[in-house]
Amino acid sequence: MFGLFKKKTQVEKLQDKFNKLMKEWHELSSINRSESDKKYAEAEAIARQIELLKSS
What SS3 state is found at 24? Predict the structure, then answer.
């Protein structure tokens, strides 16, 4: 209950976005390969941002 109004950190927001993109990537992987590759590239860019934030 006390965490109800807690704001998400930048890393948590990026992690949520990364998870969403990976889910979309998986769904598209059997339907549209080129769109799937685009989603995967976006997810990888976000993963690099997360690593940079965690290392600093």
Answer: helix
This prediction has a pTM of: 0.84
Residue 4 has pLDDT above 80, yes or no: no
Residue carrying the six token digits 């965490």: 3
Which residue blocks in 1-56 are alpha helix, DSSP H?
Answer: 10-28, 33-55
pLDDT digits (tens, 9 = 90+) for 14-51: 999 999 999 999 999 999 999 999 999 999 999 999 99
What residue segments make up the domains of the chain, in order of their start? 10-55
Using alpha carbons, list the distances in angstroms from residue 35 to 11, 23, 56.
Answer: 25, 13, 32
